[in-house]
């Protein structure tokens, strides 16, 4: 620490240091003045552009955006100024009217022309409404100007994605400049792809061919559409080389699109399977191993999600820095609290009904209604708001329109880890051995000294805790409200019965099977038919194999 | 005393004791008017539909504070049909026949209204229905408080197809599988055909109630959007908990309003609770009321709701009000006015007295019951999602257009 302080004070403590310090400060001030000066000198340009942006009518405003971009190109205004103006307009923070436009934020008011703070008070609280046509222009404008003002900045990947979507309206000259700027190397290839879109119309055949090649290198349905449009527009007199390149490019994109489509289907199937599996896992333990028909399983999932929410809210107060990782930090809480609820259920109600399954069914149903309504009274009916951590929002574009969304990847990985954990506990621990023993032959296990009651209680706790983890894993994907559990219960029973009562591997296999079949049928016959077909298939399957996919030997 | 005389005496005594209570309960029934509520507070519709029970109670409390209707107190009977459509009919019958309710307020989905329809028609009841819906129905036993498509959906589509709305040319229809989305989509298709579009410019998909796994469908939407033919939009008619799940998925797949705008016909302020709406800015909806409507009546309504929720410690957000709440509230007041005018709560008299009644709706419009049917002229709003979990008003009509129950496009 002392080293740091002395380092900071070195200019002052060294001989002649003070003088150097002042000189340095002077240089910085000069720099600031120098960079501010041209802005002041060119204020008329800013004023004119702002006038257009403030004008009535979207067409005029669009003209203002085009003109602002043109004056950036001409070097008359600074791109960072343009970014500020566009963002303010998009956020409805640019207040027109009065003698000069102002930009308002929560606590400051700035002059739009110079971005300097001012004491003026704005006439209105909010700027004019921004419609979709204007908004897409603004998005494009912000993206390109940001690439120019802070090359290689943290937003450059997102900016590139914006420009890619709006390749048709992006100004070519500015993109060319952005490509040439040092710092933008990471996005330069992507920007050249965008330039290629414009080059498709180039009079020079060589340019066109290289543009076609480039577009074919980045296969997407969008590029396919561009090439198809080009092919339809070609006249017979056109160069044969272009036609050849075009058709091979189209074929190439089509091939990759198909690969992308298959990958997307597999990924959707996996992600749906992981959700089904998480929802069913707790039930696989409770129903599969213990034979208890627990209709409150969905509500245990809901409780897990609410515990996750509470952990998030607690972190907001206690340690806002850790908020980003609340999902991971909530894992033990979601497990323990839900397991506690499960154990309480077991001890107070279910224990007394083990030999009467029909009564268990009714009792657990009553418990589920009780839990739903208790949650409604405490938290209200509205959907809970979860902070989406940075590492779970959005997704990554792998290739050819195949997007891997982080929240679903999280669910898949989480399901795998939980499956591994549950299998480990059941197979390699003493507790697991007891649970298996009780499953296979309850009376015999009791005879050889296993405390059947305790094992029941712990197994029920584990099953409930797993449901709690499911709630945690589902909270970034699904809406969380008191009634959310009801939608899982049917699917969960379906998976457990299909998988084979008492087998976790069977549960996983059944989830995978149903998930995959669902996503394959869905695009062909629609989601409603998919559900019907899957249910029919299960009915037929159970007819021929009532014990499910993987049958466990045991005496019940 | 022998056994027989004991029995006789006790029977007489019992009858004597019971008589005053019978008389008093009958006289009590004479000075109250009962309203029945058919809104689910459990099941897939629970989150939004449940609030309507409370808003009817709030309106009734307002009436009672002013001395009731015809000098009688208004009592609200609340039921929970649990998002189970046949149960609406059963509970509706119970409210009409057993509880002798003067009028019913109820139903969110059209399928639940269709289920109650025969009940109110057989028993000559009155159902006040607060949702905008597909039209194509004109029962003398239902008061349609909200707008049919001609004064809600079609203006919004027209906007999206105009230059300012992005000149939409291709349409992806995604709905829950029941009568409202299917009829709305049929009307939309008819409308587009009349504008010169053909079948290649739209695609139609339906999902079951409570559906939440939208990944595959959003993949298909992205594919549809990148095909040639012009700007695509999504006409979203999924209901209940599917709405936020759908938006979560399109946000994660990187679709914003400037790429493919979503016209969410059942999307309300309450559906945005719990969502980060910053990546959703610009998506649209259309209703006869938006929370941000600028009118003194609206501020009063919002304050009332807030204090009603806080006083009753209700499980709803005190700061969120939605169109069907306002419509139900309007309905209670329109009913009260009609009863006052008719001098009695008999459905036939109320219906006759209703023609031409008007009420200052919190939306800022003076809404009016039409003379020839049980529809209400309402204002039209097109809203655009902002980053504060609400809708900015993008456009609103000059006045209240006359409702057209039957669409020429259906």
From TrEMBL, chain A:
The chain crosses the membrane at residues 272-293, 300-319, 325-345, 357-379, 399-426, 458-480, 492-517, 524-544. It comes from the Bacteria. Its main location: membrane. It is found in: Cell membrane. The keyword Transmembrane applies. InterPro entries: ABC_transp_permease (IPR001851), ABC_UrtB_bac (IPR017779), BCAA_transport_permease (IPR052157). Keywords: Amino-acid transport, Cell membrane, Membrane, Transmembrane, Transmembrane helix, Transport. CDD domains: TM_PBP1_LivH_like. It holds the Pfam family BPD_transp_2. It is a multi-pass membrane protein. PANTHER family: ABC TRANSPORTER PERMEASE PROTEIN (PTHR11795:SF447), BRANCHED-CHAIN AMINO ACID TRANSPORT SYSTEM PERMEASE PROTEIN LIVH (PTHR11795). Belongs to the binding-protein-dependent transport system permease family. LivHM subfamily. NCBIfam families: urea_trans_UrtB. This is Urea ABC transporter permease subunit UrtB. It comes from Roseibium algicola. The lineage of its organism: Bacteria, Pseudomonadati, Pseudomonadota, Alphaproteobacteria, Hyphomicrobiales.
From TrEMBL, chain B:
InterPro entries: ABC_urea-bd_UrtA, Peripla_BP_I, TAT_signal, TAT_signal_bac_arc. Coiled coil: none annotated. SUPFAM superfamilies: Periplasmic binding protein-like I (SSF53822). Pfam families: Peripla_BP_5 (PF13433). PROSITE patterns: TAT. CDD domains: PBP1_FmdD-like. PANTHER family: ALIPHATIC AMIDASE EXPRESSION-REGULATING PROTEIN, PTHR47628. This is Branched-chain amino acid ABC transporter substrate-binding protein. It comes from Roseibium algicola. The lineage of its organism: Bacteria, Pseudomonadati, Pseudomonadota, Alphaproteobacteria, Hyphomicrobiales.
């Amino acid at each position: 620490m002392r080293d740091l302080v002395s380092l900071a004070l070195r200019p002052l403590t060294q001989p002649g240091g003070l003088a150097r310090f002042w000189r340095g400060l002077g240089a910085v001030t000069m720099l600031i003045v120098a960079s501010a000066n041209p802005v002041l000198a060119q204020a008329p340009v800013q004023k004119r552009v702002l006038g257009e942006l403030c004008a009535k009518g979207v067409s005029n405003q669009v003209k203002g955006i085009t003109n602002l971009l043109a004056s950036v190109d001409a070097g008359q205004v600074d791109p960072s100024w343009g970014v500020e103006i566009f963002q303010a307009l998009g956020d409805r923070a640019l207040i027109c009217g009065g003698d000069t436009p102002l930009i308002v934020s929560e606590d400051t008011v700035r002059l739009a022309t110079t971005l300097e703070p001012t004491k003026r008070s704005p006439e209105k609280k909010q700027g004019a409404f921004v419609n979709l046509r204007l908004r897409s222009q603004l998005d494009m404008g912000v993206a390109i100007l940001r690439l120019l003002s802070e090359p290689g900045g943290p937003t450059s990947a997102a900016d590139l994605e914006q420009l890619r979507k709006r390749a048709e309206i992006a100004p070519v000259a500015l993109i060319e400049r952005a490509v040439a700027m040092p710092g933008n190397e990471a996005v330069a290839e992507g920007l050249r792809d965008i330039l290629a879109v414009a080059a498709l119309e180039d009079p020079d055949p060589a340019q066109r061919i290289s543009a076609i090649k480039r577009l074919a290198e980045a296969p997407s349905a969008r590029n396919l559409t561009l090439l198809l449009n080009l092919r339809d527009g070609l006249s017979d007199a056109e160069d044969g080389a272009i036609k050849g390149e075009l058709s091979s490019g189209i074929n190439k994109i089509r091939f990759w699109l198909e690969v992308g489509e298959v990958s997307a289907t597999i990924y959707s199937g996996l992600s749906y399977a992981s959700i089904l599996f998480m929802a069913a896992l707790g039930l696989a333990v409770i129903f599969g191993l213990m034979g208890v028909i627990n209709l409150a399983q969905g509500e245990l999932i809901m409780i897990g999600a609410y515990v996750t929410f509470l952990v998030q809210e607690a972190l907001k107060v206690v340690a806002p820095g850790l908020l980003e990782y609340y999902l991971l930090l909530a894992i033990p809480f979601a497990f323990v609290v839900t397991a506690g609820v499960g154990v309480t259920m077991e001890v107070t109600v279910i224990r007394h009904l083990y030999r009467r399954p029909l009564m268990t069914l009714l009792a657990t149903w009553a418990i589920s209604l009780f839990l739903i309504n208790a949650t409604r009274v405490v938290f209200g009916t509205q959907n809970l708001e979860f902070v989406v951590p940075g590492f779970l929002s959005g997704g990554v574009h792998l290739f050819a329109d195949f997007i891997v969304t982080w929240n679903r990847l999280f669910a898949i990985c989480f399901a795998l880890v939980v499956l591994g954990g549950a299998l480990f506990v059941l197979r390699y621990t003493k507790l697991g051995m007891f649970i298996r023993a009780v499953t296979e032959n309850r009376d015999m296990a009791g005879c050889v000294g296993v405390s059947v009651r305790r094992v029941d209680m712990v197994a029920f706790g584990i099953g409930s805790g797993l449901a709690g983890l499911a709630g945690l894993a589902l909270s970034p994907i699904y809406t969380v409200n008191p009634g959310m559990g009801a939608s899982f219960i049917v699917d969960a029973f379906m998976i457990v019965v299909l998988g084979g009562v008492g087998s976790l591997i069977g549960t996983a296999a059944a989830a995978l099977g149903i998930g995959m079949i669902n996503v394959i049928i869905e695009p062909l016959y629609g989601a409603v038919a998919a559900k019907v077909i899957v249910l029919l298939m299960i009915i037929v399957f159970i007819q021929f194999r009532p014990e499910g996919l993987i049958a466990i030997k045991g005496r019940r | 005393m022998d056994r027989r005389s004991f029995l006789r005496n006790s029977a007489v005594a019992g009858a004597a004791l019971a008589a005053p209570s019978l008389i008093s309960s009958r006289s009590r029934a004479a000075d109250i008017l009962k309203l029945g509520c058919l809104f689910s507070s459990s099941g897939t519709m629970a989150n939004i539909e449940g609030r309507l029970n409370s808003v009817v109670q709030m309106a009734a409390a307002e009436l009672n504070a002013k001395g009731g209707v015809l000098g009688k107190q208004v009592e609200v009977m609340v039921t929970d049909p649990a998002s189970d459509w046949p149960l609406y009919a059963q509970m509706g019958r119970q409210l009409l026949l057993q509880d002798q309710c003067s009028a019913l307020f109820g139903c969110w989905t059209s399928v639940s209204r269709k289920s109650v329809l025969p009940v109110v028609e057989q028993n000559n009841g009155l159902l006040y229905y607060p949702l905008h819906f597909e039209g194509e129905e004109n029962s003398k036993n239902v008061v349609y408080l909200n707008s049919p498509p001609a004064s809600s959906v079609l203006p919004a589509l027209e906007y999206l197809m105009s230059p300012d709305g992005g000149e939409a040319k291709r349409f992806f229809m995604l709905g829950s599988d029941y009568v409202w989305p299917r009829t709305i989509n049929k009307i939309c298709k008819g409308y587009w055909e009349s504008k010169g579009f053909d079948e290649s410019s739209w695609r139609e998909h339906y999902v079951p109630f409570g559906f939440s796994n939208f990944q595959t469908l959003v993949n298909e939407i992205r594919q549809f959007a990148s095909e040639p033919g012009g700007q695509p939009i999504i006409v979203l008619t999924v209901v209940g908990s599917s709405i936020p799940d759908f938006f979560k998925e399109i946000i994660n797949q990187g679709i914003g309003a400037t790429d493919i705008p979503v016209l969410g016909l059942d999307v309300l302020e309450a559906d945005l609770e719990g969502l980060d709406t910053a990546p959703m800015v610009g998506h649209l909806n259309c209703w006869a009321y938006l929370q941000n409507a600028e009118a003194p009546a609206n501020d009063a309504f919002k304050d009332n709701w807030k204090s009603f929720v806080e006083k009753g410690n209700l499980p709803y957000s005190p700061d969120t009000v939605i169109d069907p709440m306002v419509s139900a509230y309007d309905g209670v007041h329109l009913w009260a006015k009609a009863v006052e005018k008719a001098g009695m709560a008999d459905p036939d008299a109320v219906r006759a007295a209703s023609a031409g009644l008007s009420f200052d709706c919190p939306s800022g419009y003076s809404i009016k019951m039409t003379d020839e049917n049980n529809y209400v002229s309402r204002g039209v709003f097109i809203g655009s999602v902002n980053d504060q979990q609400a809708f900015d008003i993008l456009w609103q009509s000059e006045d209240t257009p006359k409702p057209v129950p039957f669409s020429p496009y259906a």
